[in-house]
Design a protein that fits this description.
460 residues, alpha+beta, Cathepsin B, Chain A, 8-stranded mixed sheet, 4-stranded antiparallel sheet, 22 strands, ubiquitinyl hydrolase 1
Length: 460
């Protein structure tokens, strides 16, 4: 009899462990179910009415957006009120069309005020190099308007097993969060976007390791273009906004160790004659003059300054530059044939040698508005291009050492005409005169419209 009672107690303990319920069985004590203390509503769940095989549609509005199931009655309902706009923000065409015309401040749920689009991004560990690029592109109106409306890219077909379209989806979600006027807080975490970047780039760009903003921007633009179905001949929103064209004149040089007679003989052959080719570009790389090696009388390095138009002379069609490869040397010159609506400048500050990465601290002096690029076009292009004047809308800055520095960005808010500086979660307004004193690394310029020449974005 005693052994039978012990077997029953063991069976009770086994059943309780299988159900995940901590039970205490003893002489004169009842079985205690601790689930009710953890969640007092678990006993109200009616499993007999739950059927998840039906289509997930709201029983009231017949919508499939933000649908949840009631575990008591088994019906489906749609999320309501402000939570739905934070979980999945949506924008109408009228709202998107008026984004650049309003400068209204919105109040978040935590009480802070913010401008939609001028929102800080969380630096998880060392992803500020990606944050500034994402913030810059979120303030390019054609790119922003395209991704704010999910219908623009939802129907794009991709081959089975392709993961690159995840980049498009996550970038669209991030764009809608940045421009959401009903956010709960005045900053956004790009965690899902960066996870997609790590996956799609095969860990070339990571959250925990500092990267180069230009390298990330180059990969990101080409990855988005391909994921949106774009090719060399088929355009996408990326090429429509940023792609321009240039002519490249290239001439092969003889090896410098050859005797003069042999050099002259080689220069007469067809191989060493100047060749011309047409090429497209998404951004222009501007080369800085070499930084000084010697210190001044106060034992401090002199920080040189150079005007923007001096480094733009690379594309005037007459300035030649030598490019060296492992085996051959070439002399090249460039001239633009078509300017895009939005022009990206990448100022080459970092050079790599066999030992380390060196940063050029030269300050580039540039105007904020009315930069005319007509003189860098061919004669045929000058006759066809109507507007060649550009205004600055975004300026990415790198501060500090090459491998240990930090990134920040200056962004123009089109609705107010004011400039803002964003560094991770910090957002502050800034005078336009202070922008030109920074070590600019990436710049995005917007071409003026025909009747936009009188606009002043100086913020004064």
């Amino acid at each position: 009899m005693v052994s039978l009672k012990r077997e029953r107690e063991v069976d009770l303990d086994d059943d309780d462990n299988e159900d995940g319920v901590a039970a205490k069985v003893g002489r004169g004590h009842a079985v205690e179910d601790r689930r009710s203390r953890h969640c007092p509503y678990l006993d109200t769940i009616n499993r007999s009415v739950l059927d998840f095989d039906f289509e997930k549609l709201c029983s009231i509005s017949l919508s499939h957006i933000n649908v949840y199931a009631c575990l008591i009655c088994g019906k489906y309902f749609q999320g309501r009120e402000d939570i739905t706009y934070v979980l999945k923000p949506t924008f109408t065409k009228q709202h998107i069309a008026g984004l650049d015309k309003q400068g209204k401040l919105y109040r978040a749920y935590d009480g802070t005020t913010y401008l939609p689009g001028i929102v800080g991004l969380n630096n998880i560990k060392a992803n500020d190099y990606a944050n500034v690029v994402l913030q810059a592109f979120s303030n390019v109106p054609p790119l922003r308007n395209y991704f704010l409306e999910e219908e623009n890219y939802r129907g794009i077909r991709r081959p089975p097993g392709d993961i690159m379209f995840l980049l498009v989806q996550r970038f669209g979600e991030l764009m809608r969060k940045l421009w959401n006027p009903r956010n709960f807080k005045a900053h956004v975490s790009p965690h899902e976007m960066l996870q997609a970047v790590v996956l799609c780039s095969k860990k070339n760009f990571q959250i925990t390791k500092q990267g180069d903003a230009v390298d990330f921007m180059t990969w990101f633009l080409n990855a988005l273009h391909g994921a949106l179905g774009g090719t060399k001949k088929k355009p996408s929103i990326i090429t429509k906004a940023f792609q321009g064209y240039m002519r490249i004149f290239s001439k092969k040089l003889p090896h410098p160790d050859l005797p003069p007679e042999e050099k002259e003989a080689l220069l007469t052959t067809d191989e060493y004659q100047e060749q011309m080719s047409e090429s497209s570009f998404l951004f222009l790389t501007l080369d800085l003059p070499t930084a000084p090696l010697y210190k001044d009388e106060k034992e401090q390095l002199i920080i040189p300054q150079v005007p923007l138009f001096n480094i733009l002379a690379k594309f005037n069609g007459s300035t030649e530059k030598e490019y060296k490869t492992y085996k051959e040397n070439f002399l090249k010159r460039f001239q633009l044939t078509k300017l895009p609506p939005y022009l990206i400048f990448c100022i080459k500050r970092f050079t790599k040698n066999n030992f380390f990465v060196e940063k050029n601290p030269t300050i580039v002096n540039f105007p904020i508005t009315n930069v005319d690029l007509r003189e860098y076009l061919t004669e045929e292009a000058q006759a066809t291009e109507k507007n060649t004047t550009y205004d600055l809308i975004a300026n990415v800055v790198h501060d500090g050492k090459p491998t240990e520095g930090a990134y920040r960005i200056h962004v123009l808010h089109h609705g107010t005409g004011k400039w803002y500086e964003m560094q991770d979660l910090q957002v502050t307004d800034i005078l336009p005169q202070m922008i030109t004193l920074s070590e600019a690394y990436i710049q995005i310029w917007k071409r003026q419209e025909s009747n936009d020449g009188r606009n002043n974005h100086m913020g004064i």
